[in-house]
Amino acid sequence: MKAFILVGGFGTRLRPLTLSLPKPLVDFANKPIIIHQIEALKAVGVDEVVLTVNYQAEVMLNFLKGVEANLKIKITCLRETESIGMAGPLALARDKLVDGSGEPFFVLSSDVISEYPFKEMIEFHKAHGGEASIMVTKVDEPSKYGVVVMEETTGKVEKFVEKPKLYVGNKINAGIYLLNPSVVDKIELRPTSIEKETFPKIAAAQGFYAMVLPGFWMDIGQPRDYITGLRLYLDSLRKKCPAKLTTGADIVGNVLVDETAKIGEGCLIGPDVAIGPGCIVESGVRLSRCTVMRGARIKKHACISSSIIGWHSTVGQWARIENMTILGEDVHVRDEIYSNGGVVLPHKEIKSNILMPGIY
């Protein structure tokens, strides 16, 4: 079985982190986003993953060579020389995805984090016998997304409505599909929107079915959703694999600490915190609702909440970092500095307080 992961784009919404690495390689819960997806695909028997790469292609290719060896799964990368929408890359990958076996293949957006119920989706797809399956998830605010209008009992898709002004339903496209090879034959190799052109044709032919995604879902393509996604992911881990979470006198709620990280005395860590490999958290530090990425150092008595600390960055003693502050790679915050929502570009030193959200 094969899978196709849509990787294109520059990850502008997740800057400054994506100035250092392509978005699929940005750490989420202590490992790159794309690794969460590839591991889940391998677990249901997918033996080849196909990706199109564009931004920082060499970095992606070198990383994926290592993943291929470590996870023992074939990874095929195709160069996308220009942005050709979502359907274009599928047409580009036709020869890799359609091998004459007739087996359906998965298509995933690289921004999506969930429990990846691929096994249930395969069963659903076989049961309805249609040409295509899509995962949908319920949201409170559907006007920000592409809404899927469907029959509640059968799951048959009636139509797709992009960012509706009027309420048409609360089930949105979750960015996970299972498609028969025949779908690829309907796509031309040109800048194409699969949602606007290809999928409506399949729905009109009564061959498209939607499955409501069990468990959590989040598109983590921007910082606020990334932090929300971390909370949902850790909560899911608590229910399914509680042994993976860190426990101790200094821990409150769901916390994930890499075994190579060092935590000082008298800290208070949690809830909803991920601390990556090689991090050093000195004594008396307070962390909540945040990610501290690989190699970062948090000095004594610093306080960080609702923020992302990039790779190899340093937060000084008694510093206070909050309100969606994002430190890019190798940022150094001086002692006793306050940051309120600062988005700090890589390799910078912050010597004075950031009182208003903005790019620095």
TrEMBL record:
One of its GO terms (biological process) is GDP-mannose biosynthetic process. Gene3D superfamilies: Hexapeptide repeat proteins (2.160.10.10), Spore Coat Polysaccharide Biosynthesis Protein SpsA, Chain A (3.90.550.10). Residues 251-358 form the Mannose-1-phosphate guanyltransferase C-terminal domain. It comes from the Eukaryota. InterPro entries: GMPPB_C, GMPPB_N, Mannose-1P_guanyltransferase, NTP_transferase_dom, Nucleotide-diphossugar_trans. It is an enzyme of class 2 (transferase). Its EC number is 2.7.7.13. Residues 2-233 form the Nucleotidyl transferase domain. Signal peptide: none annotated. Keywords: GTP-binding, Nucleotide-binding, Nucleotidyltransferase, Transferase. GO terms for cellular component: cytoplasm. Pathway: Nucleotide-sugar biosynthesis; GDP-alpha-D-mannose biosynthesis; GDP-alpha-D-mannose from alpha-D-mannose 1-phosphate (GTP route): step 1/1. GO terms for molecular function: GTP binding; mannose-1-phosphate guanylyltransferase (GTP) activity. The keyword GTP-binding applies. Belongs to the transferase hexapeptide repeat family. This is mannose-1-phosphate guanylyltransferase. It comes from Brassica napus.
